[in-house]
């Protein structure tokens, strides 16, 4: 996973002690949640309104997340359909006061645009 330094960071967060598992790593579900939040922000901008997560594809954990990591979540549009948008999400950690950057996980999340009755609606034109 290569992170373009000019990409926008959508979320930046530090895990808390409650987010750690018995192995001393951060729960996978915690990072999945952060990815879903960041992807939803980007998808909502594209859809110009409410969206819902409908699929998570090809997600891969590359390295564990440790206590003290500054976790940065990058997200960008990968593919657009009539009512849905696929968002590529990459997560990296900054460790040791910024001395080291570590790729953590990556995946593609698909979101569908919703109307006021929570039904799929077309995404506004390109």
UniProtKB/TrEMBL annotation:
A GO molecular-function annotation: long-chain fatty acyl-CoA hydrolase activity
Domain named HotDog ACOT-type: residues: 5-117
Gene3D superfamilies reported in the protein's UniProt record: Hotdog Thioesterase
InterPro entries recorded: Cytosol_ACT, HOTDOG_ACOT, HotDog_dom_sf, Thioestr_dom
GO cellular component, one term: cytosol
Record keyword GTP-binding present: no
Transmembrane intervals: none
Tagged with keyword Hydrolase: yes
GO biological process: acyl-CoA metabolic process; fatty acid catabolic process
Keywords, sorted A to Z: Hydrolase
Domain of life: Bacteria
Protein name (Swiss-Prot/TrEMBL): HotDog ACOT-type domain-containing protein
UniProt organism field: Sphingobium yanoikuyae ATCC 51230
């Amino acid at each position: 996973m290569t992170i373009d330094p000019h990409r926008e960071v959508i979320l930046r967060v530090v895990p808390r002690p409650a987010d750690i598992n018995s192995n001393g790593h951060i729960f996978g579900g915690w990072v999945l949640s952060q990815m879903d939040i960041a992807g939803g922000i980007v998808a909502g901008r594209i859809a110009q309104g409410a969206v819902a997560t409908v699929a998570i594809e090809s997600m891969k954990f590359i390295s564990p997340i440790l206590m003290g990591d500054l976790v940065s979540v990058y997200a960008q549009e990968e593919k657009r359909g009539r009512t849905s948008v696929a968002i590529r999400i990459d997560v990296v950690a900054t460790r040791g006061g910024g001395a080291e950057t570590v790729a953590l996980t990556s995946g593609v999340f698909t979101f569908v645009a919703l109307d006021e009755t929570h039904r799929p609606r077309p995404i506004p034109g390109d």
